[in-house]
Amino acid sequence: MHIQDCTENTCVDQIQKIFHTAEVEIQRKKRVKVKLRLDLVPLFLSYARDYLNFKHLAHISCVDWIEENEFELIFMLWSYEASLMIMVKTRVNREKPEFITLSHLWPQAETYEREIHEMYGINFKGNERLGEFILEDWEGVPPMRRDFDTIKYSKENFYQRPGREDAQDVRETISKHSGEEVPDFAKEFSIRRIEE
Amino acid sequence: MTYDKNSKKIVDIIQNFARKHSLWILAYGTGCGAIEVPPTMTSRYDGERFGLRGAATPRQADVLLITGYLATKTLKRVIRTYEQMQSPKYVIGFGSCTINGGMYWDSYNTIKALDRYLPVDVYINGCMPRPESVISGFIKLQQLISEGKANGAEKYQKNLEWYRENQKKVIHNWKMPDYNW
Predict the structure, then answer these.
(1) How many Cβ pairs closer than 8 A exist between chain A and B?
(2) Domain shared by A111 and A80, yes or no
(3) Alpha-carbon gap: B177 to the closest alpha carbon of chain A (Å)
(4) Residue A1 domain-assigned (yes or no)
(5) Other beta carbons within 10 Å of B52
(6) Is residue B62 within 8 Å of B90, Cβ to Cβ?
(7) Banded pLDDT at B90 (limits 50, 70, 90)
(8) How far apart are CA A123 and CA A98, in angstroms?
(9) ipTM value of the model?
């Protein structure tokens, strides 16, 4: 069954009819958000590609939820017919991050997976080109993980020219101007640590 | 011919005069600053008034423009490129990233001070420097050349060990030929 003029609402109905556990939500016009269990994701993606006509994989992205000990993988699919984007969100365990490759569905998924593997350390089973991609001779914690301390690393590895001590913290300046409060997790990454 | 710094021979004056009026820039953009080079060279600012020209290969070029941030991966290529260039050769650090890291001061992957790794003759600050300041940087370089002070390549030869030490601190897997200077 191909839905030629699929709108947000019919798309949500279709998905909920088949995937009962999926949390589907219309985020805004032309954007549908789907939260899914990890093992249902390959099934859902092939269903969305072949039956709902989401032919184009626009992006795979990753978020590190360190407090919940999980990584979130986000797949963005685009439908040319309906000009609709769906985001498929799923959670991977942070201790042993593993998922299967999607390169059999979309060849371009291979590149996104290589990047996520390099920056977050998620292993995509079946992808044979995982390995050195953008970074060269990188050892240690993948740099986009939140437990990687980038200020400490750059202080240890690179010569820092003195004279930047009076640099302002962007977050504090913005919060002063707009009256917003700096969230707790941002406070510890303050620029003041450079002066220590 | 032995080169004595204190004596300025008429040959040197003629040589430096010729050199400063034909600076060939290696067309190698490392960071976002490379976007300021086309307007500098094209009709509005017309860098060719000052003898600036693009060169295709390192061996034909006189000036290495480091346009912006340098990732450690790029630094490796830049060092090789610089060592392949023939003397006289000059390095211009372009943008605040080459001076003190700029907005990449806390990045895990970019160097913060270019002159620890390559001998810089002229720095142009700004983020990004406008074509006017690029041209003023080149005029400064021309002054240095005519005074015989743009001797970054000699500095590099003399202090090669210090530069190598710094370079190897950043580039962990050093698989490069050691040139016979």
Answers:
(1) 53
(2) yes
(3) 18
(4) no
(5) 25
(6) yes
(7) very high
(8) 5
(9) 0.80
